[in-house]
Amino acid sequence: QVQLQESGPGLVKPSETLSLTCTVSGDSVITGLYYWSWIRQSPGKGLEWIGYIYYSGSTQYNPSLKSRITMSVDTSKNQFSLNLSSVTAADTAVYYCARLGAQGPRFKWFDPWGQGTLVTVSS
Amino acid sequence: DIQMTQSPSSLSASVGDRVTITCRASQSISIYLNWYQQKPGKAPKLLIFAASSLQSGVPPRFSGSGSGTDFTLTISTLQPEDFATYYCQQSYSTPPYNFGQGTKVEIK
């Protein structure tokens, strides 16, 4: 059974960098069949895709956040990470990691998801 | 970007009711449409992929249909555990992988 678990600080100061890690168990990030993704959900709001990373290190980011995002993958630890720089209160959200499965170039879906971690941006 | 619009934003229903949720894309997305269920305090869970394919382990009372711009998620006989928020998500034109704003199914 594949499981994903987010970890990282729950409180980040404005203008600093939010850093989260997702640890994958029951699957390998180097499988090559999946893309490893981050999604966030602001309090009381909907879901916003942040981006994904492939085991090779190639990435795709949401254009609305692209200038502030860096993602990386650590195959030795079976983890992938998110850095979001210059955060503001608008970045306060529950951050989820998820596996993006694909069948062909356009059939893609997020499954499974981590339980999520709340990150609050506040001084 | 392709925008996804769900309707209604919320609905009240009783156990045993048939429930239908609609998702409309701002342009044609063929059948590249997925549905998720989210319960309070939990992560979303994949219900249906490719518009109508039921994810393994999901009860058959859930079904999806549609293509192009208009899609529906139907719960044939609402169960107590189905009270949740449902989201659609397109994968036709990316990035980004946009979600609908959600439909909350509440107890009547």
Summed up:
With 123 residues, chain A is mainly β.
Question: Which features does this protein show?
Answer:
heterodimer; A: 123 residues; seven-stranded mixed β-sheet; four-stranded antiparallel β-sheet; B: 108 residues; mainly beta; six-stranded mixed β-sheet; 0% helix; 47% strand
Report on the structure:
The complex is a heterodimer of chains A (123) and B (108). Chain A is mainly beta. Chain A has strands at residues 3-7, 11-12, 18-25, 34-41, 47-53, 59-61, 69-74, 79-84, 93-103, 107-113, 117-121. Chain A is globular and about 40 Å long. The mean pLDDT of chain A is 95. With 108 residues, chain B is mainly β. Helices cover 0% and strands 47% of the residues of chain B. Chain B has no helices and 10 strands. Chain B has strands spanning 4-7, 10-13, 19-25, 33-38, 45-49, 53-54, 62-67, 70-75, 85-90, 103-107. In chain B, the strands form 2 sheets. Chain B has a 6-stranded mixed β-sheet, with no helix packed on it. Chain B has a 4-stranded antiparallel β-sheet with strand order 1-3-8-7, with no helix packed on it. The model of chain B has no long low-confidence stretch (mean pLDDT 96). Classes of the chains: A mainly beta (123), B mainly beta (108). The A-B interface holds A 46-49, 51, 60-64, 96, 98, 100, 103, 106-116 and B 30, 32, 34, 36, 42-46, 49-50, 55, 87, 89, 91-92, 94-102.
- Count the beta strands of chain A: 11
| Biggest sheet details of chain B | 6 strands, mixed
Low-confidence runs of at least 5 consecutive residues of chain B:
none
- Radius of gyration over C-alpha positions of chain A, nearest whole angstrom: 14 Å
Percent helix range of chain A: under 10%
* Series of H and E elements of chain A: EEEEEEEEEEE
Query: What would you call the shape of chain A?
Result: globular
Low-confidence stretches of chain A: none
Termini Cα gap of chain B? 36 Å
> Which class best fits the helix and strand makeup of chain A?
mainly beta
Mean pLDDT of chain A, to the nearest integer, reads: 95
Strand content of chain A: over 45%
Radius of gyration of chain B: 13 Å
User: What are the secondary-structure elements of chain B, in order, as H or E?
Assistant: EEEEEEEEEE
